[in-house]
Amino acid sequence: MPNLSTAYTKNGVTATPNGNGTITFNGTASAETYPNIVPRANPLYLPAGVYTITGTGLDAKTEFGIANIETNKSVINIGGNNPTTRTFTLESDIQCECFYIVRSGATYDDQTLSVQLEYSGAATAFEAYRGKTYNRVMPTALIGYYGANVVYTTTGDVLSAKITEDNANGNVDWTAYGLPIIYLKGDVSAMTKDNAVDLNYEYGDLSGVVSVKWQGSSSLKYAKKNYTFKFDNAFEAKTGWSAQKKYCFKANFIDHTHARNLMCASVWGELVKSAVTSNDFRYSLPNGGAVDGFPCIIMLNGEFHGLYTWNIPKDGWMLGMGSGTNEAILCANGRTQPAADGFKALETAFGDAFDLEYITDENNTDWALTSLNQMLSAVINSDGSDLDTTVAQYLDWDSVIDHYIQTVLTGADDCRYKNYILFTYDGVKWFFSAYDMDSTFGLNWDGKSFRPANAQPDFKGYANVHRAMELVRTYKKDALKARYATLRAGALSEINITNKLTNYMAGIPSQVLDADAAKWPTIPSTSASNLAQMLNWYRLRVAVADAEINAL
Q1: CA–CA gap between residue 91 and residue 93 (Å, rounded)
Q2: Which helix (H) or strand (E) holds 28?
Q3: For a Cys-Cys bond, which of 388, 398, 427, 447 suits 524, CB 3.0-4.6 Å?
Q4: Spatial strand order in the sheet of 418-424
Q5: pLDDT tens per residue, range 129-176
């Protein structure tokens, strides 16, 4: 609504600003104040769309209008003798101005008027001005500015316009950003990592009940949580995943870009496919046994809850398991730093160095511990002469070498004796896979700072803390160097990494990233963790790694 810095009198009526977007009228009009009782606002930009005017105080004696200043034609007038409808549609963008008209003889006794323009077809209660101003024109779209609910020009003499991107009211048309959205409703106050709560959900044409709990370990301390979802019915969230009930929603709290984990997993998929034949079981898996996912928005009880990535969980179907008799997935937890997780000691019980993530029969886990220790014993006791004979029966060296190279090149410092995956299909031979790679491309584990491109892990440093990498660097040097050359020309080339990261981030609108940071203000490094930082870091990193490999 028009807002004044001081009271203004015309034809016997005084309009007094109240400082909150409302105006109080007093006096009797000696003449009609057409075209306006208060000075017209500076030009106001309105994009095409549906608008609704809400407010109080408009009656037969008082009229409010909006006019197109380019055509000098009325857009809408309400009050007076005009129709009562307050919703109108603009077919194209316009520059406009707004004004009040007071009829001759109209009398006011402390009558307060409030007018609010909403970018939607639904009317809501008037909200007081919260101090956001724009210089002469609105943004190019009303939904283009997060966090304000009213807009004034520099002079303050314009319509009180409600921005629908005020996520406290949940009025944003989030579908406009093109990301998948899952809508949740219910009480989450009792939710923990160990206690799931049932929520109602809507996702596209699907609806029902989903059981939700927190997911993760060290990440539980962050305000924005990861979640495990178990839906009431199975469905295929992404083509190629097949119908599933269990999914993981990653907050990516330390990584403002939401790109590091999924793009490193995508690289791992390329590594696997380049190392195995098409008839290998892993060839057809999403990302060769690493996670896969896509960015999405979670809406909780009508409010924007954040930007997430909808991921394959750390579960059997990530690796295509479920039909064998001796299948297991382990994840290094780093608690021993390093002992069994560095292949330097045997595992006493699951949970010491490796967490058991999946097993064919949860009531029969002894065989998996025995199998793991058989492999660890072979690696620990090897003198290098039996790597391709005895040890190769229990450990897949191709996956070890690929893990070694990717961990060093992407700077996955948090994956040296933690977070990597070990899995077996037959209870005899174990393979490496990749997991939890958000602390990459220089980002430290807490997301608050960045490591230089020549920091750990390098090939020598990783070999110092992991016996399998030590054996590769010492006794399988030629295989390491050959594979490194292949990957540097392919999946881990600067061209491929640049293309992969750039195209992924192109699909996440900056407005959504900004909204996520505003919703969760403790997200670290929001001004520095971006595409440019990752690409520049990798450019410097490969030069360091190339030199180390060439010197072997």
Answers
A1: 7
A2: strand 23-28
A3: 447
A4: 354-359, 328-333, 418-424, 431-433
A5: 444 333 323 333 332 222 233 333 333 333 333 333 333 334 578 999
